[in-house]
Each structure stands twice: as structure tokens, then as C-alpha cells.
Design brief:
Elements (H helix, E strand, L loop, with lengths): L7 E9 L6 E10 L4 E9 L2 E5 L8 E7 L3 E6 L1 E5 L8 E2 L10 E8 L2 E6 L4 E4 L4 E3 L9 E9 L2 E8 L3 E8 L1
Length: 173
């Protein structure tokens, strides 16, 4: 399938819409070089990719996750969100409100159970009411977490330290 962009596809997520029963699939593509800074979001449906609005979104994005028709997150240089895909613009948390650092990936199990990981060992969790930062529990002054997965009461994040050693973080409730 052609996306119609030369940007790198960084992440893709799909989920069933609880109201319609239909499958919703979104892909996030971006590049950030001195020559070009751009992020695009595509909706994949019926074998084609349609570009969606990225109004309000930073040009340096890396991951997308959502619960269809309820909440959409895109992360990278900032944590961006929308309540509905049809909303005209993405809103962004001001720097330092949730995290001060670049975010590598967002994943969740529900709109009240969302994890975001990123630079310097940043791990944040949204419980439906507020964000909790685990930064003081998992500091990585020369590393990052780039991937996160959640299943039941288990959260796992992977990344690197000193650009040479792998690290795995396992969290349980």
C-alpha cells in the first residue's frame, strides 16, 4: 500500500471501535532533519491511506496510540492528544507538565491506563485522572526507553544505556 509520503512510518496502531464495531488503524510518519521537519498521521481503511490533520502537532513525532472514538495520543517532541479523531487540532501538554523529555512510545490498555516512555529513563502513567512520573525511580542519565508494552498488571519497557547496553524495565501493580 502506498502512503503517498516519503516520510518514515514510525508507528502504527489499530483497535476496534466499541460503538461502531469497525476497525480503526492509524499510522504516524515523520522525519526530523535540518532539511525537513514533518509529521503526518494516516488513516488506513479499505486498502488505502488517507492523510489526517496534524494541526497543532510537533513536526518531530514518533508514536501513536488510541482508543477509537475516546482518546488519541501522539508522542515524540511533546505529548499530543485529541478526544475525537474528527477534532480539528491536536492539543499538547506544556513542557514539564507531564514530562520534560522526548517521548519514544505510548501504549495503553484503556483511556485510564496509559504509559509513555522516553529519554533519560522517563516513564509516565495516566490513570484516568492524573499523570504520575516514575523518573526519580528509574533515572537513566545517559539512556532512554524507546518501547513499552502493557498486559494485565505487567508493564515492560526496553531501551539503551550509553548507546551500547540494552535495558529492560519490568513493572507490576
Amino acid at each position: 500500500m502506498e502512503s503517498g509520503t516519503a516520510l518514515d512510518v514510525r508507528d502504527i496502531w489499530g483497535a476496534t471501535n466499541g460503538r461502531t464495531g469497525g476497525l480503526e488503524i492509524l499510522a504516524l510518519a515523520s522525519t526530523y532533519t535540518p532539511q525537513l521537519q514533518a509529521s503526518k498521521v494516516f488513516r488506513i481503511m479499505s486498502g488505502s491511506a488517507t492523510m489526517l490533520s496534524t494541526t497543532g502537532m510537533s513536526p518531530d513525532m514518533f508514536s501513536i496510540w488510541f482508543v477509537p472514538g475516546r482518546r488519541y495520543y501522539a508522542v515524540g517532541a511533546g505529548i499530543h492528544q485529541k478526544r475525537m479523531l474528527s477534532d480539528s487540532a491536536w492539543s499538547v501538554y506544556p513542557p514539564g507538565v507531564v514530562t520534560r523529555f522526548y517521548s519514544g512510545e505510548v501504549r495503553g490498555q484503556a483511556i485510564n491506563d496509559v504509559f509513555i516512555v522516553g529519554s533519560f529513563g522517563e516513564v509516565v502513567h495516566f490513570n484516568g485522572r492524573s499523570w504520575f512520573r516514575y523518573f526519580s525511580d528509574v533515572p537513566l542519565p545517559s539512556g532512554y526507553f524507546g518501547f513499552v508494552a502493557i498486559k494485565g498488571n505487567l508493564m515492560m519497557a526496553t531501551g539503551q544505556i550509553n548507546a551500547s547496553k540494552g535495558i529492560v524495565l519490568i513493572g507490576t501493580r
